[in-house]
Amino acid sequence: MKYHIMSLGCPKNKVDSERFAWVMNSAGWKYSDEPESSDLIILNTCAFIAPATEESLEYLSDIIRWKGEKPGRKIVMTGCLPGRYADDGSGGLEDIDLVTGPGDWRKLSAWLGVVPEGQAQVSGQGSYRYLKIADGCSNACAYCTIPAIRGRFIPRHLDLILRESDLLIQQGACEIGLVAQDSGNWHQNGADLSALTEILAARHPSIWWRLYYLHPLHFPYRLTEIFSKYSNVVPYIDMPIQHASDSILERMGRRHGVGTIETIMEQLDNSPVEIAVRYTVITGYPGETEADFTALRDFLGRYRSGRHIAAFSWYPEEGTLEYSRTIARGDAVDDSTASRRLAAISAVGDALYADWDERLYGRELTILADDRLTGHTRWDAPEVDAVVSFTEPVNPGSAVRAKVVESSGAVLVAEPVN
């Protein structure tokens, strides 16, 4: 019997999918890259925002058609979609054989009739992998559905994190990203994310470690010291600042002001190590004035460490505080204004890339090869940031020393150096 997993959304979902794969393998099933040759498909959905929900439903519709083409096929739906929208008994799930909440591998195990031995594990492959260090979020931002889907913040135990890091490396990982809904909030017995990163970097000195989802409220300020001390902790910060106007941050329920992110960025800019920051921001937020937007745009272009911008327009997500509040106040930003502001943020992002293009051109860099022809730098996360195209084939998973011979935005061309 063969199974296939479709994992939608963020890297955190990929970790859950790898745990489902471990359960399936324990039950004697074999993984298939092709849905058509599979007897069961696990759809791990995303429903963080409306477009993600729509995408998940489109995939589900295709999989239901897939099931109807051959008797005996089965569907398992898991992830944020069932986590956000519980079955109210009105129907519509008749074609789905099993529905589980986010990461609920135990329910899948029980349905299969197996009890995997030992601690929960992950099963996967690839030169870069993700290690979940916590789940849930306790920040209660006004626009966000995560607490309702994933629950409150719960850090994973250090022993489990270390054991899983060892396993990922045994499975071939050369780079590991630490992920959670609020990674900077990880703590245990007085240790914070900085301490955890040091432990992992020292335990596996040949592995690249990358940090994702660092909320400014819980930013670990010792990271700049760690970047200097451990060359295998890549100087990269993924930080959802969301805005740079105090009034909008307050309305978002972010519990910090612009001064906090200014302090963080000034520290990063003054580091002896060259650091890249990936900003996540929301524009077109209800109540956002031109002055608010100008403050955000100017902030994003101010700091040398800024390299990537992931910008989104606000979505009226049902069930959030902002959804009901905006309906009551009637102060949503109109679609044309939101689109114009999003385009202006994109132009700032292009300018950041242009600045880095000048800095990287002609330099010899260590690049992690994702396959024979492409890879990524220390300042670029795989799958979402700039891609390096090699001028000749290299060994996948290797750290390649190469000279940047062309640099244009999100694409670098590099020539391997003997």
Question: Helix and strand layout, with pairings?
Answer:
Blueprint: E1 2-7, H1 11-26, E2 30-31, E3 40-45, H2 50-68, E4 74-79, H3 80-84, E5 98-99, H4 105-112, E6 128-132, E7 134-135, H5 146-150, E8 154-155, H6 158-170, E9 175-179, E10 187-188, E11 191-192, H7 193-203, E12 208-211, H8 223-229, E13 233-242, H9 246-252, H10 258-269, E14 276-283, H11 290-300, E15 306-313, H12 321-329, H13 335-360, E16 364-369, E17 374-376, E18 387-390, E19 399-408, E20 411-416
Parallel strand pairs: 1-2, 1-3, 3-4, 4-5, 6-9, 9-12, 12-13, 13-14, 14-15, 18-20
Antiparallel strand pairs: 7-8, 10-11, 16-17, 16-19, 17-18, 19-20
Summarize the structure in words.
The protein contains 13 helices and 20 strands. It has helices at 11-26, 50-68, 80-84, 105-112, 146-150, 158-170, 193-203, 223-229, 246-252, 258-269, 290-300, 321-329, 335-360; strands at residues 2-7, 30-31, 40-45, 74-79, 98-99, 128-132, 134-135, 154-155, 175-179, 187-188, 191-192, 208-211, 233-242, 276-283, 306-313, 364-369, 374-376, 387-390, 399-408, 411-416. By secondary structure, the protein is of the alpha/beta class. Strands 6-9-12-13-14-15 form a 6-stranded parallel β-sheet. It has a 5-stranded parallel β-sheet with strand order 2-1-3-4-5, with helices on both faces. It has a 5-stranded mixed β-barrel with strand order 16-17-18-20-19. Helices cover 36% and strands 24% of the residues.
Concise structural overview:
By secondary structure, this protein is of the alpha/beta class. It has helices at residues 11-26, 50-68, 80-84, 105-112, 146-150, 158-170, 193-203, 223-229, 246-252, 258-269, 290-300, 321-329, 335-360, and strands at residues 2-7, 30-31, 40-45, 74-79, 98-99, 128-132, 134-135, 154-155, 175-179, 187-188, 191-192, 208-211, 233-242, 276-283, 306-313, 364-369, 374-376, 387-390, 399-408, 411-416. The longest helix is centred in the last third of the chain and has 26 residues, at 335-360.
